[in-house]
Each structure stands twice: as structure tokens, then as C-alpha cells.
Design brief:
Length: 263
């Protein structure tokens, strides 16, 4: 029997729906889920939603984004398709494109198409998905801030402080929403604390600050200690990206000072 991966609309757990069934019982929360409620009523819609959930299950948020988008084109009021698109938006978009503000907008649109218990459950699930998205993006965000700080040191970008403050505020407001959607979500409240204290934005492991070493060196060291073999290329790539950027900035400084000499 073919099983379709999906998310329980009541508790957010990963569930498997036997192909062709009309309803399924969630083994985590015991709720009965109507397939037409979760995946939509037409076969075209169900097809899009199935593809989207399958892609999410494989960690492929880019493909899932496209499938949810198509599902919304078919039924623009399906709250699960909109909530799915919200998660993908937070996972795949560039930090510069303000993905977190957009993610919140989409979640709130999803809530507006659900009411009562359905909306409450949707909010709870949104809350835990937001925490996942913000945690997953931690290294991307701290790298962005580190690069902004680096360009500030060299005076290349005016308004850098402004950019950093805006980014930090956006992250904080996003997690505040997660706390608001589900006040009992302890992970959300502790993440918010981490953000308010600033420790979230520090790259690497804040508990293992190595004095005398540069930030990127200690970060790469800590990351590689934590990383198993399969992930090593990521660490190397990040390190390469960093040194590549620093090198570019160095070349820039040299070019500018050389220009000044000749003028
Ligand atoms: Zn459930």
C-alpha cells in the first residue's frame, strides 16, 4: 500500500496517509483527519498537496514551495496550503528578501481561513514551525551579521548598523509571534530569551568562546567538532565563503589605497 506523507492538522505530527483512504486517525493525538479537509477536495488539489508534503518530507523546501503555490492557485482559501507555503518561505528565501515577515503574513492569512479549534491548532503548529525555521537559519543569520559588521569596520556600507538592527528586530518580532500564537510553547519563549539577550546572534557556540582566536576560526573549529563526516563539506564551504569574502574586502581596501596613492 502506498503511503502519502502529510502533517496532522491537529498536532503537527508527521503522519502517513494510506493512498485512497477518505480519513485517517493520527496516532499521536488520536484526532480523526478527513483527507478532503487536509489535502483539498479535487484530485488536482490533492495531487499538489501530496507532492508538497512529499517534498517537505525529503527536506526539499524549494520544490514544496512550488507545489504549495500551485495548490493555492487552485484553492486560495486552503489554510494548510498557505501555512505550508509560509514554512517554505522562511526556509528557502534569502535573508535580504525579508522571508520572516512574509512567513508571518502567510501564517496570518492561513488563520483567517480557519476558525474555532482548527484555527487554534493551526496557530499552535505555526508556533512550532516558526521556532524550527528560526533555529535552522541561525548560522545563515549570524554569518550575515558578521559580514555586515566586517563591511562596517571597513566603512564600505553606510547604514550598516541600521541594517543589522532591522534584521535583529525582524527575527525578534517573528519569534514574538510564535510566543503569541502558542503561549505554552516553551521552545519559543526560550528562543525569544536567547534573541533578546543577543546570544542567538553570536556565531559559533557562545559557551565555548576561545580567547585570543578570531571569531571565524573558533566558529569553524567548534562547528567541525560538532559535525559528522557527512557534513564536513558544509563546514569547509562556509569557511571558504568567509575567507573568500574577507579576501574580497582586503582586495578592495588595497585597490582603494592604491588608487589614493596614484591620485
Ligand atoms: Zn495529530
Amino acid at each position: 500500500m502506498h503511503l502519502i506523507p502529510a502533517k496532522c492538522p491537529d498536532c503537527g505530527a508527521d503522519i502517513k496517509i494510506p493512498d485512497g483512504s477518505t480519513q485517517v486517525k493520527c496516532e499521536y493525538c488520536g484526532g480523526t483527519i478527513l483527507i478532503t479537509d487536509l489535502l483539498g477536495s479535487t484530485s488536482l488539489m490533492q495531487n499538489c498537496m501530496t507532492l508538497a508534503y512529499t517534498a517537505i518530507n525529503e527536506g526539499n523546501y524549494k520544490d514544496a514551495y512550488q507545489h504549495f503555490n500551485r495548490a493555492i492557485e487552485i484553492d486560495m482559501k486552503n489554510p494548510y496550503a498557505i501555512a505550508g507555503l509560509a514554512v517554505c518561505t522562511g526556509m528557502v528565501n534569502k535573508i535580504n528578501d525579508k522571508p520572516f515577515n512574509r512567513m508571518i503574513e502567510l501564517f496570518e492569512r492561513a488563520f483567517s481561513y480557519a476558525d474555532g479549534v482548527k484555527q487554534q491548532n493551526l496557530k499552535k503548529n505555526a508556533s512550532s514551525e516558526i521556532v524550527k525555521v528560526i533555529k535552522k537559519n541561525k548560522s545563515r543569520i549570524s554569518l550575515d551579521i558578521e559580514l555586515l559588521n566586517l563591511s562596517k569596520l571597513n566603512n564600505f556600507l553606510p547604514q550598516t548598523d541600521d541594517k543589522i538592527t532591522k534584521l535583529k528586530t525582524a527575527i525578534q518580532e517573528t519569534v514574538q509571534k510564535a510566543c503569541e500564537y502558542d503561549p505554552e510553547n516553551k521552545e519559543a519563549s526560550s528562543l525569544l530569551q536567547e534573541i533578546s539577550s543577543g546570544s542567538y546572534f553570536k556565531s559559533g557556540n557562545e559557551n565555548m568562546e576561545i580567547p585570543g582566536k578570531t571569531l571565524s576560526e573558533s566558529q569553524v573549529k567548534i562547528q567541525s567538532e560538532h559535525t559528522i563526516d557527512a557534513n564536513k563539506p558544509t563546514v569547509k564551504r562556509q569557511a571558504a565563503q568567509k575567507s573568500g569574502c574577507s579576501l574580497m574586502i582586503l582586495i578592495f581596501i588595497l585597490a582603494i589605497s592604491a588608487g589614493e596613492l596614484f591620485l
